[in-house]
Write a structure and sequence with these properties.
Layout lengths: L1 H23 L8 H13 L16
Helix pairs in contact: 1-2
Length: 61
């Protein structure tokens, strides 16, 4: 039971860190390596899906 508690704690920590990274960094261009491969994975971990995602080249307020 302690293992499950630890796993849930780490999962929450990864989601929080990924969400902070997505909020603090500008959306990379689609043709760059970061925008094509790394950033979508970080957005998925951060639970940025659907309308929560920022499109490449879109200005953030």
């Amino acid at each position: 039971m302690e293992l499950l508690s630890d796993l849930l704690s780490y999962a929450g920590m990864f989601v929080a860190i990924s969400s902070a990274i997505c909020a603090a960094t500008p959306t990379p261009k689609d043709d760059a390596f970061m925008g094509k491969y790394v950033y979508p994975i970080i957005e998925l971990i951060a639970l940025n899906v659907g309308k929560a995602k920022q499109k490449a080249g879109e200005a953030s307020d």
